[in-house]
From TrEMBL:
It comes from the Bacteria. GO terms for cellular component: large ribosomal subunit. Belongs to the bacterial ribosomal protein bL32 family. The keyword Transit peptide does not apply. PROSITE patterns: PROKAR_LIPOPROTEIN. GO terms for biological process: translation. The keyword Ribosomal protein applies. This is Large ribosomal subunit protein bL32. One of its GO terms (molecular function) is structural constituent of ribosome. Pfam families: Ribosomal_L32p (PF01783).
Length: 62
């Protein structure tokens, strides 16, 4: 069984782990109802719809 001869240094460990961090990018898509840009899988802040259903009541719609 393979065993390391030397202890891995802090810098080598950091270099190896440098690509492990998650990269968050906000992807904006157009809302199906109003067309305004919104993040994916969220309720539209302009019209209050999600997946074609009205889920949040917006104050200016009366």
């Amino acid at each position: 069984m393979a065993v390391p001869k030397r202890r891995t240094s802090k810098s080598k460990k950091g270099m190896r782990r440098s690509h492990d961090a998650l990269q968050f990018t906000i992807v904006l898509i157009a809302c199906d109802q109003c067309g305004s840009p919104k993040p994916r899988h969220t309720v539209c802040p302009e019209c209050g719809t999600y997946r074609g259903r009205q889920v949040v009541k917006i104050g200016d719609e009366e």
